[in-house]
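user: can you give me the structure for this one chain? tokens are fine.
assistant: on it. calling the predictor now.
[tool input]
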Amino acid sequence: MSAEKHQILSDMIKLALVDNKLDECEYDFINSVAQRLGVPQEELAELIVSPLSIGVYKTELERITQFHRLVLLMNVDQETHIAEVDALRNYGLKIGIRPEAIEQVFNEMGDYEDKMIPSERLVEIFSRFYN
């Protein structure tokens, strides 16, 4: 059982459940991440019932990568609820993402199909605020 992998999935689960439901497309996305991380289905099921509290990501790259995963998750169901935006904004601040970068990401989401900001553009946004 890898604490880091479980933390990544727990953060995703918490965001998905902000609207008090786990849509099939959200579950599928989380499940695909779990598979890539090598987390067994039984462990994922346990995390859905009892996700871990917010953890600390050691590097800037880990924080940015996790924030990107959560942006993708928020938009996977084609519905962006204000509660999800607020939760993701607060989450980003808690893990040390600069507020300006968070707002730039939110401002640009609508410029892309399905609100999915390409990873290259996300890197550009974060490079601007972290260099």
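assistant: here you go. The chain has one domain: 3-130. The chain has a mean pLDDT of 88.
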